[in-house]
């Protein structure tokens, strides 16, 4: 079977062309590898669900406290979920190409084709809240209680890619920590796969809830440095929170996400 690889520009053109046609089944599957963390589809009511926390609220103690997890997941993540669904339910406010895609492909795919600078208040509302949904979906999926099997340094293909890009795991960790600590105000640090650079890895940061998908890369790990992620436990000491976050990572999940992102569809 012949595999055709598209860069972001080519993929975006394909998705938008399919959106104009009636072949929504093709639209739904074309960028499937963009979604690396479940859920990748809406529920039976056509809404994006709030994924349940995959571990008890108090299970990340002493690194992240119980109350922070409740607020972060049940209020902040839930808020982004509800507002994303609101944006998509009011489709007359979205650009026509997004109206055609809504409900027929992953949210990651929709974010991938959005221009990097939203040109209207309604599109900005979708980008802010859809980005918040995707970022938090990844954030909670990639943590686990201390002592879990996935809490080790990465292995296999992901480790090979880290070594190739950064030299070794320690250098990568230092780079991501530096990016996170350098974010001004609210934002995120990400480890991303760059499809247009032979699936190479990059560490990058974004302000607010901006999604890396809008820049044509696939995030596989994200560190939330908004104050709501740490202030109850750490106060203004963001650096302490960042250092402790490394103690609750689930590298098994990140390795699976990397495999999905780098597998040709």
From TrEMBL:
Organism for this UniProt entry: Chloropicon roscoffensis
EC number(s) on file: 1.15.1.1
Endpoints of the signal sequence: 1-25
Cross-referenced PANTHER family: 37S RIBOSOMAL PROTEIN S26, MITOCHONDRIAL, SMALL RIBOSOMAL SUBUNIT PROTEIN MS42
SUPFAM superfamilies: Fe,Mn superoxide dismutase (SOD), C-terminal domain, Fe,Mn superoxide dismutase (SOD), N-terminal domain
Enzyme class: oxidoreductase
Coiled-coil intervals: none
Domain Manganese/iron superoxide dismutase N-terminal: 48-144
Family statement: Belongs to the iron/manganese superoxide dismutase family.
Start and end residues of each Manganese/iron superoxide dismutase C-terminal domain: 154-256
Gene3D superfamilies: Fe,Mn superoxide dismutase (SOD) domain, Iron/manganese superoxide dismutase, C-terminal domain
Keyword annotations of the record: Metal-binding, Oxidoreductase, Signal
One Gene Ontology CC term in the entry: cytoplasm
Binding site for Mn(2+): 72, 136, 224, 228
Full protein name: superoxide dismutase
InterPro entries in UniProt: Mn/Fe_SOD (IPR001189), Mn/Fe_SOD_BS (IPR019833), Mn/Fe_SOD_C (IPR019832), Mn/Fe_SOD_N (IPR019831), Mn/Fe_SOD_N_sf (IPR036324), SOD_C_sf (IPR036314)
GO molecular function, one term: superoxide dismutase activity
């Amino acid at each position: 079977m012949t595999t055709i690889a598209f860069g972001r520009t080519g993929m975006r053109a394909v998705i938008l062309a399919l959106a104009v046609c009636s072949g929504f089944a093709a639209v739904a599957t074309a960028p499937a590898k963009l979604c690396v963390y479940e859920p990748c589809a809406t529920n039976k009511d056509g809404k994006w669900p709030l994924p349940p926390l995959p571990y008890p609220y108090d299970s990340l103690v002493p690194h992240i406290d119980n109350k922070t997890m409740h607020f972060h997941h049940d209020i902040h993540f839930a808020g982004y979920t509800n507002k994303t669904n609101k944006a998509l339910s009011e489709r007359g406010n979205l650009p026509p190409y997004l109206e055609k895609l809504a409900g027929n492909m992953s949210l990651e795919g929709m974010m991938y084709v959005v221009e990097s600078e939203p040109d209207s208040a309604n599109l900005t509302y979708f980008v802010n809240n859809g980005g918040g949904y995707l970022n938090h979906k990844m954030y909670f999926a990639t943590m686990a209680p201390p002592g879990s099997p996935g809490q080790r340094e990465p292995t296999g293909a992901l480790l090979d890619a880290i070594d190739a890009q950064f030299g070794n795991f320690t250098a990568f960790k230092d780079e991501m920590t530096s990016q996170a600590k350098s974010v001004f105000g609210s934002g995120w640090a990400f480890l991303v796969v760059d499809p247009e650079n032979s699936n190479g890895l990059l560490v990058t940061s974004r302000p607010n809830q901006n999604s890396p998908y809008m820049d044509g890369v696939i995030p596989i790990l994200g560190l939330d440095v908004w104050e709501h992620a740490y202030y109850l436990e750490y106060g203004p000491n963001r650096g302490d929170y960042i250092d402790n976050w490394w103690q609750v990572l689930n590298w098994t999940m990140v390795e699976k996400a990397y495999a999905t992102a780098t597998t040709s569809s």
